[in-house]
Amino acid sequence: MVLTRQQEKAMFANLGITKKINFFHDPSHGYYQIPKATLVKLDIQNDISPSSKREDTDVFLEEDRDMSLFVNALKLKGLKLEEDDFNDKHFDEPNQNPANLDFGLCDRCGRSFSDIDKLKLHQKIEARFD
Known about the structure:
By secondary structure, the chain is of the alpha+beta class.
């Protein structure tokens, strides 16, 4: 059965997607802003890689692996994303892209982390070698 665009929009709304998806990108990489609740409803929240950035209410899915996972989960529900479902937000420099902001840098090795818990664990491990 093929869904009408209106039926698809209603199904997207049930998943928590009620507006266009923001796509933040720069010359080096891109991220799609998706509500955490949507990932939970699709039951893929535990499959998202550390490459994606997590915030309180949203996850910025990295454009390759994690966005593919999201698109495939939508396909299983009979949904597909169209070009007009996105807000394209281009930045000339990676440090201008809000989705590229990391939670912190390890002061010992300089490695950046997008997840604060992983940064804290990394710092504990690094401290054992002092």
